[in-house]
Design a protein that fits this description.
With 150 residues, this protein is an alpha/beta fold. The chain is built from three helices and eight strands; from the N terminus they run E-E-E-H-E-E-H-E-H-E-E.
């Protein structure tokens, strides 16, 4: 699994001209799922996201997690995080999981995040054409791949 995390002052997702979800201070998380992802990837990434210390403390040092900040999380599925651009100019998505498998893992990821976070996770709609708006705070943008646990 791959996630792209952005610390945001606000973020929202719109589907068919209707806002589905919106958050204020928190994390916008894009997630890409591949076939070889297992439940251990879900658990590891969920724990990492919830406890990632990227919010400023009273000394302006990024030392507080979204959980400690009582922020929110907006989770958006995005298979293009597994794009391969090795050959030619058209990205290949061969490593991205098939929709029926990815949707199940996406729902498991939401459940794990809610369990670890202790509150509702806001989402888009799996497979929908979504318009995502955000005001990046910092800016802070972090890429994490569960297959590369350095």
């Amino acid at each position: 699994m791959r996630v792209l995390i952005q610390r945001v002052a606000e973020a929202s997702v719109t589907i068919d001209n209707t806002i589905k979800s919106s958050i204020e201070k928190g994390l916008l998380v894009f997630v890409g799922i591949e076939n070889k992802d297992e439940f251990s990837d879900i658990q590891w990434l969920s724990n990492k996201i919830v406890n990632l210390r990227i919010f400023d403390d009273e000394n302006k040092v990024p030392n507080i997690s979204v959980k400690e900040k009582n922020g929110d999380i907006l989770l958006i599925s995005q298979f293009t995080l597994h794009a391969s651009t090795k050959k030619g100019n058209r990205p290949s998505y061969i490593n991205a999981s098939k929709s029926e498998i990815a949707q199940k893992k996406y729902e498991e990821f939401i459940n794990q995040l809610e369990s670890d976070f202790g509150k509702k996770i806001y989402t888009g709609s799996f497979g929908a054409d979504m318009k995502v708006r955000l005001l990046n705070d910092g800016p802070i943008t972090i890429w994490i791949d569960s297959k590369n646990r350095e």
